[in-house]
Design a protein that fits this description.
This protein has helices at 3-11, 55-73, 90-100, 161-173, 190-203, 223-228, 273-288, 307-310, and strands at residues 14-17, 28-32, 40-44, 81-84, 104-107, 120-123, 131-134, 150-157, 178-186, 206-218, 268-269. By secondary structure, the chain is α/β, with parallel strands linked by helices.
Amino acid sequence: MTAPDWVSAAFGVELHDRPGAAPISELVQLGLRRNPKRAHLLVSTVLGKHLPTPPAAVRGSADDLGDAVVALLGPRAAEATVLGFAETATGLGHCVAERIGAARYLHSTRRAVPGAQVSGTFEEGHSHATTHLLLPTDAAFLDPPATCPVVLVDDELSTGRTAVEAIASLHALHPHHRYLVASLVDMRDDAQEADCAAAARELGVEIEFVALTRGRIHLPADLVDNVCALDPADLNPRVPDPAAERGTTTVVPAPWPADVPDGGRHGFLASDTSRFHLAVDDLAAHVAGYLAPDEQVTVVGHEELMYLPLC
């Protein structure tokens, strides 16, 4: 029995496809976490965040989402500000921003930086760390003309509450007319969709939603208690004889131009894209010099540093 099937059988969690939509199982699988706020996870199979994923699959799904955004925004996509959600969608958001040719990209962060000005915050109530910070280097980064659309990118929508909270916070600081929430999967039910529509009316803005597929999830009332009662998982087990499995570690200084942003944490402009990719090419060539030509390589990104490792 696979892990998602085990979760469904043991705890009664059910995923349901929407008629006419792509199967949810093509994009996510069920997982559990010992969190009294929310005990289930929809783990993406195409994000490259929690499960090993071929880079082409990560980029392909992000490109598909970007194309769906362009289908709604048309030429105005090039004027957009794209905001990715930490930590899971920092790389996804940057991929979407590049695909649509957005004017600017920023991702939220959970980590305050000494000396960095906080330009905005919003809350994600079910998360392990609820507060998102916006730390663009330029205080005017989030203040383009109100007619420019704002695109918020996350890997999955469960209720839409976090996205609406983010929009309300952004709108209070820098009002815009049109907001678009883009996600790989949208799991909202009818009541939650109605809540999002009501929030848009209350704010006096247009909020649209786009996703690669949509579905529904059924959660038993006792799910949190049953999951939190599980024995802790045996993580990182030691091999019987560590010395027999010992490998080598090589630390390689990573050349990176000081004037090129390495991601969207403090803001990334469309004009940064070409210099960024030139720097990535130089870095990849440098690292490749330490690898055998036929060596299979796993690249590991970290939390908010996902897009550069993907590239």
